[in-house]
Structures are given as structure tokens and as C-alpha cells.
Design goal:
It is built from three helices and eight strands. The model has no long low-confidence stretch (mean pLDDT 93).
């Protein structure tokens, strides 16, 4: 069963282009943002964001994030979601930025004719590239407690 759930989680990650990132500020104010994302073979997640967005500022002061990738394309009551506890950071190395940008570009249904330079995500430019490294991953399953439907979470391994 665990292997099947891991495969389901990987299928959702492959299918859904947007992740929702939950962050919090230093003083504990929550924030949630959907972003277009890509991932690598180790299931690290990447996205671009304006450095002054609230979630970007939150990550700068608190790297703990929670990602949700939910398949809302299916019939009501049958959806599965992948829940990821992770640590996020802004990338500052040109080679890492270039790698992340190539992954993001490959996921697009209409790739750009020219890939932006990593320098356009550094210095005085407004946008940055971020990376989230998973620490724990769950997928939801359904259950029944005394005749009542419950939505359970089961920890899975992606790698």
C-alpha cells in the first residue's frame, strides 16, 4: 500500500503545475501563496517570485514552509493531495538558478523562445528563484470512524 501511495503522490506532483506555499512571518502571521513550480529528481521544488512578495519576505526570516499540491481536476470527493513539510530558501548561485530555471521552463506548455539569464534573478532585478527541500511528505487517504468519513494523512517517501 505504501508504494502505491508513493506512486500516487508522484503522479499528482507530475500532473499539477501549481503548488501552494504556506509561510509565516517572524511574529507568526500566516500567509499562503499559489505558485507555478517545477521539481528535480530528488523532489526539491522550485519557483520564481518577486522578492518583495509576502511569502518571499517570510521565507527570508523563517525558512519553514508547508507545500500542498492538490489534484482538483477530479470528481468531488475523490481528490488526493500531497502535503510537504519543507525548508525553503532563495537561490543565490548562478548555476543553481540556471538549473532551476531550466526545470521551470521544461514544465511549461508553451516554452519561451529564450531562457532568461540567471543574472535576471539576482542583484537589482525584482524576481528571485526559490527552492524548497522536503523534510516529510504525506498523501491523503480516506477512512471511516464509526460510520463517519475522515480524511487521513499517510507519510510517504518520494525518493
Amino acid at each position: 500500500m505504501a508504494k502505491n501511495l508513493s506512486l500516487q503522490a508522484k503522479g499528482i506532483i507530475k500532473k499539477i503545475l501549481y503548488i501552494t506555499i504556506a509561510t509565516s512571518s517572524k511574529d507568526g502571521q500566516p500567509w499562503n501563496s499559489p505558485v507555478y513550480s517545477a521539481y528535480d529528481q530528488s523532489y526539491n521544488f522550485y519557483w520564481n517570485s518577486w522578492k518583495d512578495n509576502r511569502h518571499s519576505k517570510n521565507i527570508a526570516s523563517n525558512p519553514k514552509v508547508f507545500l500542498v499540491i492538490y489534484d482538483s481536476t477530479v470528481v468531488e470527493g475523490t481528490g488526493r493531495g500531497v502535503y510537504i513539510q519543507a525548508r525553503a530558501s532563495m537561490l543565490t548561485d548562478e548555476k543553481e538558478i540556471e538549473y532551476a530555471r531550466s526545470l521551470l521552463e521544461k514544465r511549461k506548455t508553451k516554452p519561451s523562445s529564450k531562457l532568461r539569464s540567471p543574472k535576471e534573478f539576482m542583484g537589482d532585478y525584482p524576481r528571485r528563484v526559490y527552492k524548497a527541500i522536503p523534510e516529510k511528505v504525506w498523501i491523503n487517504t480516506d477512512g471511516n470512524i464509526n460510520g463517519n468519513y475522515v480524511d487521513k494523512r499517510v507519510e510517504v517517501k518520494l525518493t
